[in-house]
Amino acid sequence: SCVLFHPKKDLIISNSEDKSIRVWDMNKESAPQVLRRENDRYWILAVHPTLNLIGAGHDQGMVVFKLERERPAYDCSPSHKRMYYFNDNYVIEHSFRTKSLNESSAQVFRRSSRINEKPRTLLYNYSNRQQHCVLLLFDPMGTYELHVSDKKRGGVDFSRQSTYKGFAKSAAFVSRNRFAVLDKNRQIWQRDLKNEVKKKITIPGLVVNQIFPAGLGRILLRTSDAMVLYDIQATKIVGELRIQSRHPIKYVVWSAKHKFVAMFSKSNIHIAKANLDECCFTFENSRIKSGAWDDETFVYNTATHIKYLLPNGDKGIIRTIEDPVYICQISPNSQELHFLNREKKCGVAKIDPTEYVYKVAVTKCKYKTVVRIMRSGKLVGKSIIAYLQKKGFPEVALHFVKDEKIKFQLALQCGNIASAKESAEKLEKTDPKSGKACWEQLGVEALRQGVCHIVEEAYMKTSNFDRLSFLYTITGNTTNLKKMLDIASQFRKDKNAVVSQFHNTLYLGDVESRVDCLKKAGMLRLAYVTAAVHGLQGVAETLAKELKEKTPDLNSIPNISTAKLLKPPVPIIRAQKKQDYNWPLVEVSSGYFDGIDISKIDLNAPDPEEKDPYDDEEGDDILENDDDMKNGGMGDLGG
């Protein structure tokens, strides 16, 4: 009833009233691929012009489907700078060292052209330096093919390659000449490169659903609710990580030195250390396609975005993409991402790793890298400032922003009084209202740290004379306290000034000035009692004449005979300079950037000793690189 050509492939797609859709290959004389429906007849077809999607209309509606799996079968090694992938019955080697894409690929294996099925997974044995060893896994048939051939500089002799077949749900290379397979009965067997069984790997109490590579002598096992790291030579479980049973792990990617491992399903990513101690977990709303490590940063992608994830849980978006790709390698320091697309073609995409490189540098205290990025001016926006504040690095953000209000708050947060004062002075000139509020906050923080000369200046800027007088009292600065008394006495009509004057007389223990203050405030009775109690007879008699019959009876005051003059203690040490008033109440540690000009930092000088927040003593026995195993290493494992 309908027939059409595929826009990209040599295929003819037809449907009919016999409830079937047929796919004809124009290059082969084989029978067509048939897709049937039980109860409905097909009437119309439509093929998407760019995507691998076909729509078919039937009696009860329509169905949209794909002809084949779009994800290419490939395997890449960050430490070896090359990748192997399957395309058109060939296993192709692609080198990331060559800039030209046309010169970087070479054929390694060739399969029979009569075989139509395509592998779901490809595994390459990077630890074998003398031979090309490739495992091709097919699903859902549950079969595998092992291809072995000698490495030669002059090319590959396809006639001398060896091919072995078997049944397995999954497989993984474990040494130079050994690989492990998981059969349909969920039993693990170790085989050599001639596909001969060497031993059975028995792990009591575990029902294994899938196995993944984990370096030399180890395999990663997936059970229904956990990922288990198993050491074949020591015959013991090294580590275990719990996962959600409804989100089984599908792909595993190890970092270059096997320090970290990324395990992801359709929507979940687990980052763990070499011994499977979990570092972080994240969830994506869209399906995760692939990922690769850039040092200690995991770069992954969905159908529309390339993102990054750090072991401490920080993540972000690097860039958007138009079509889905499969990440293979991140070239260090070159801002290039190597990928395979759905047409099995290699490509290179430009990325900007500045954001995650900066976050790693801040976390690991790589100050030269931090300064270099700050000088470049590539990072802008409040998100970076918020990140630095959240992670406890306000001293770094302090040199990163130009907004004086934000800079003032950052300076207070990291305890940098000098920078906070500088920002407050600038704000006072441009925005007096905001400047006054900043001086008030600066006074509180300076008092907490014991920087009294800044506290004094802050109280003066905000006209907080009561607190200023008390500051002079506790620091023993009686000279300035007398000046405060003189200033307050000049504002006689101001009620607040009268109260301040009275407080200053109490702080100084000056009874005559106190009596005079009470007299000017109209409190003659209280002034008379104060003068009489403290022995100022002349002043008391003068006040008694003014009060006449309202003169208080001193005998009615209880315990008047034991009354003593209220006078503050005499300071033991009197400061000669403003800075001498300070006393450190809070120890504020100085950072790398405190008191230095960023533009004058020598980026060629050695960095201070860096700290690794992810470093520990566990997992030190993990092999850092497959190249560490000389001459086969564990070639006789279980032999």
Q: How far apart are the termini?
A: 61 Å
* Class computed from helices, strands and strand pairing: alpha+beta
Shape: elongated
The percentage of residues in β strands lies in 25-35%
Q: In angstroms, what is the radius of gyration? A: 40 Å
Overall pLDDT confidence: 81
Strand order of the largest sheet: 1-2-3-4
Low-confidence stretches: 617-639
The major beta sheet can be summarized as:
4 strands, antiparallel
Can you count the helices?
14
Helix content: 10-25%
Number of strands: 34
Can you give a write-up of this model?
- This protein is an alpha+beta fold and 639 residues long.
- 24% of the residues lie in helices and 29% in strands.
- The chain has a 4-stranded antiparallel sheet with strand order 1-2-3-4, with no helix packed on it. Strands 8-9-10-11 form a 4-stranded antiparallel sheet, with no helix packed on it.
- Strand 25 and strand 26 (268-273) form a beta hairpin.
- Helix 12 (511-520) runs antiparallel to helix 13.
Main attributes of the structure:
single chain; 639 residues; alpha+beta; four-stranded antiparallel sheet; 34 strands; disordered C terminus
Give the topology, please.
Blueprint: E1 2-5, E2 11-15, E3 20-25, E4 33-36, E5 42-47, E6 54-58, E7 61-65, E8 74-77, E9 82-87, E10 90-95, E11 105-110, E12 121-124, E13 131-138, E14 143-150, E15 162-167, E16 170-175, E17 178-182, E18 188-192, E19 197-201, E20 210-213, E21 218-222, E22 226-231, E23 236-242, E24 251-254, E25 260-264, E26 268-273, E27 278-283, E28 290-294, E29 297-301, E30 305-309, E31 315-320, E32 326-331, E33 336-340, E34 346-350, H1 354-363, H2 367-376, H3 382-390, H4 394-398, H5 404-414, H6 417-430, H7 432-449, H8 452-461, H9 465-475, H10 478-490, H11 495-508, H12 511-520, H13 524-533, H14 537-547
Antiparallel strand pairs: 1-2, 2-3, 3-4, 5-6, 6-7, 8-9, 9-10, 10-11, 12-13, 13-14, 14-15, 16-17, 17-18, 18-19, 20-21, 21-22, 22-23, 24-25, 25-26, 26-27, 28-29, 29-30, 30-31, 32-33, 33-34
